[in-house]
Amino acid sequence: MKKWLINLSLVLLFPAGIFLMDGCYPNDTISIDQTDVVMTGYYDSVNFKSLSTYYMPDTIFPITDDTTNVKPINDQDKILKSIADNMAAYGYLRIYYTDSTTLPDLMLAVSAIKITTVNVGWWYPYYPGWGWGWGWGWG
Q: Tens digits of per-residue pLDDT, 68-120?
């Protein structure tokens, strides 16, 4: 009976172990393009061919979890230039704030989310290990 129970547990645990180890795939990197998020709100009734101008501020608005220390976004000029180049490629004309006589058809509000995450853990030679090797030492 004991041998049968051991064999059954090996038959069940071995495939389960392989299945669980398959969850962490080496070199499964995600590129920056795959993590970018773009949100767009529009009405189906809008004829986009009739829209030709847009307004975009010269600042990227940071959305952070720490509102006491808001710093400008690094390389925001490059990001805003890339957006402006893409809009120009689609045929839109950028209107600046100083052009108060012309109202833009679209307004772009560019923002970036910044979240600070702190993970706490341990690794040699810190707690709870001591001595050489993994875990509680070589004994």
A: 777 778 889 999 999 999 999 999 999 987 666 778 888 888 888 877 777 66
CA–centroid distance for 33 within its chain: 9
* pLDDT value, residue 84: 95
Look up residue 22 and give its amino acid. Answer: D
Question: Which residues of 1-139 form beta strands (DSSP E)?
Answer: 53-55, 61-64, 93-94, 106-107, 111-114
The yes-or-no verdict on residue 125 having pLDDT over 60 is: no
Q: Please check whether residue 114 is in contact with residue 64, taking contact to mean a CB–CB distance below 8 angstroms.
A: yes
Provide the phi-psi class of 27: left if phi over 0, else alpha when psi is between -120 and 50, else beta: left
Q: In this structure, are residues 30 and 54 in contact, taking their beta carbons and an 8 Å threshold?
A: no
Amino acid, res. 53: T
Give the per-residue pLDDT at 85. 96
Assess contact for 112 and 65: CB atoms under 8 A: no
Q: How far is CA 34 from CA 30, 38, 112, in A?
A: 6, 11, 16
